[in-house]
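The passage that follows is intended for readers who have already worked through the single-chain material. We present the inputs for a multi-component assembly, then the predicted structure in tokenized form, and finally a short commentary. You are encouraged to pause after the input and sketch how you expect the pieces to fit together before reading on.
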Amino acid sequence: MGKYVIDATEGRAKAATFETVHGTIHTPVFMNVGTVAAIKGAVSSVDLHSVGTQVELCNTYHLHVRPGDDVVYKMGGLRPFMCWDGPVLTDSGGFQVFSLGELRKIKEEGVYFHSHVDGRKIFMGPEESMQIQSHLASTIAMAFDECPSSRAERRYVEDSVKRTERWLVRSKAEMDRLNSLPETLNPDQMLFGINQGACFDDIRIDNADYISTLDLDGYALGGLAVGETHEEMYHILDVTVPHLPQNKPVYLMGVGTPANILEGIERGVDFFDCVYPSRNGRHGHVYTKHGKLNLLNAKFELDESPIEEGCGCPACQHFSRAYIRHLLKAKEMLGMRLCVLHNLYFYNRMVADARQAILNNNFSEYKKKMLEGFDNNM
Amino acid sequence: MGKYVIDATEGRAKAATFETVHGTIHTPVFMNVGTVAAIKGAVSSVDLHSVGTQVELCNTYHLHVRPGDDVVYKMGGLRPFMCWDGPVLTDSGGFQVFSLGELRKIKEEGVYFHSHVDGRKIFMGPEESMQIQSHLASTIAMAFDECPSSRAERRYVEDSVKRTERWLVRSKAEMDRLNSLPETLNPDQMLFGINQGACFDDIRIDNADYISTLDLDGYALGGLAVGETHEEMYHILDVTVPHLPQNKPVYLMGVGTPANILEGIERGVDFFDCVYPSRNGRHGHVYTKHGKLNLLNAKFELDESPIEEGCGCPACQHFSRAYIRHLLKAKEMLGMRLCVLHNLYFYNRMVADARQAILNNNFSEYKKKMLEGFDNNM
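Having made your guess, compare it with the prediction:
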């Protein structure tokens, strides 16, 4: 079980320290997404040390399909496999399975679906998800949940959330069982529960109250940033986070833009993850305090400055906008790698600065200044 | 002009030191190919320090087309543009132009051809090639030559070599003129001449004798490893290298396999370059002292050992064959990057070891031992 200590608060914003068996996490924290045990854009776990990463996130469904969680287990778990010495969080596989749409069938026991790689039929329920995550030996496992659309009908969401609650109880029982097995790789594997309820305040709140009674290691908000407006998402955070335990970390899953993250921190969120920095980087879109730049733009052809003046990332230490633009135009992988490294550094640095601001009791000022600098796309 | 000092010889094999305005080169040396000012496989010039690179090679034709040598000139030349602090060699553009086949027309003044990027008509002769290379500001420029097929008819080769000789005189005059201009970025830019003659001993020898009378900074053998057998290539080296100046470096262009390189060193070659290590790396084919491995092979699925035991490359320092195989199967760019880094290290290390062996007067033993270890594909 992780030890969670709040170092400082400012309004509902928190700076905390979360001790795990794989290292200490200082929150707020942005987890860097390494879907199949690698950050897309030719970035290795070793490279992550140079961009200030604290936690790497990997996707259970993808790793179950390839190389197989049995392979990762035999290699000693994800951390030695991908050579990352810090904490790892694995999702439950649910989100990917539910995005398969017509390809899957939901039952009380779990979900039947077809692999996106070879089409073979797979079943995943709470027990299977925990078993796979136990094989992957992450620091933090996520409970198996359904993620209903933010536009789903009330009746559907009510039924779905009730089933997810039953799945949470099964997830916890199975994780407890797995952690006590002699052959488990990480007997201290933690489990976070997931709050759902689409955009219905009362369903979100009832669910938050219920899952808080289970003694989990942390609590996540799922099913956000999947179609609702930013304002709806902030509203759900406003009404739900106060109903989660104050002595446990809060994780807002799959969110989001730099502005989303600052708004989330203000509303008491500790953990974030998002594919934006790596996905945008691969398309030559890079983040700066003054807005997002498209490096493919002709105006950067002769621009000798780094992506962002004063940035300490491995790209900005050495290379100019003009050079990176040339690489992107020539479709050289190196261009993508440099943009991804910069973007991860930008996100990691932004939340580290937010933490420092909370410790200094000037987060509200920091957030205001950052948001003023961002362009509309941020 | 570079200062070339032979440190030791063993038979015709040489270990030499070549002083350039951009740093000292210890030969034999394998130059790492960064076609468009970047090593394919997401490897930057900064990364090259970790794989023992001495010289980076860039392709004049590709850079002329994109981003344009005028852009590179305005950015201060290739070295600051790609952030490489060591020596750079640029080819003349001739080889790429001549591989365009039906798309080009050869005249006394030079070659008319169409860009592979946008189809626009381009003319390149000796003067244009030197002007572009002067813009790129490489340490060593190559003379503009025609590279006839190793199977071309005698009459064609005779005419071609005579024209290449006239182009060499024009290349030298133009490089001298450019180096004396106040706006030149590298007034010490060196020029290597290129020996041609397909597989005709007498044409090769006559050409070598002639170009040796021009006071060039080094001498290359071109038109090899383009269709003839390895034995034919070694024979051409045997008969031609003794006719090149012994007080200048010798460069075997575009060669080759590890075995080819050891045979070249034995025959007095100083400089090599080849796309094999990066191209093979991108396909998951990696070099070891015991032969080439295809990491996609199922037998590596659970292989916890590095690509090569005891290897000091950035991939072998951290990652297993099993992990890299997984990345390659999942088409993660990181897999390609790690294989390319390993292969460049392997080549760079092999020639560095060959140099040390020559200094120790046991190159012949070193070569024998290495060749015994290689499988047929090496």
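Commentary: Chain B has a mean pLDDT of 96. The two ends of chain B are 36 Å apart (CA to CA). How closely did your sketch match?
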